[in-house]
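request received
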Amino acid sequence: MKLPAYELKSSDNFTTFEFVSIGIKGDIPKLIQFSTTNYKDVFNLAFGDKDTKTGNFDDTIITNNGDSEKVLATIVRCVYAFTHKNPEAWIYASGSTKARIRLYRMGLNRFLDEARKDFEVYGQINDQWEKFSNNVDYEAF
Amino acid sequence: MKISDLNKTKVPVIGVDKALNKYDEVVLFPKKVARANQMLKNIGLPKSKKRHSKPAA
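response:
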């Protein structure tokens, strides 16, 4: 993957990652977390902005920092790092709003050819999974 | 690993920041995890030829 991405830092076990989004709204720290679920080897991928004043994280905020493609490329790098460490992992991801899910879907479309070389990619729609296809309004991935 | 190998790999070189370790045991985005668990309960995982995961014991 040759798209530009931000420099990443990780926790010791590669489940929490941090990077700084640099754009029109300034420097915004972001945290990416792979959380365990009730299923073995299934992890939830989520990320959000870190409030530097409170230390809290918000995955609903619309940053509009003008670097969404670079942010998505950075998240893809995290997925590679995480799955290198956890090769049996399934990763589930969704957005907090329909607009955000659409953004992620479009981003995934961009990386799809590359991603398919290394991963099985599925989309969730109407309580079913199917092989990810372009132009389908998936609810999660 | 050689530099040329590093340039070819898709796995990024990432520095460890031990300050992030404190987040590993905390669910930072609980609503998303709850949604994932609900999905798993409702429809499970895709039928992969490679592997199958089951509810954790």
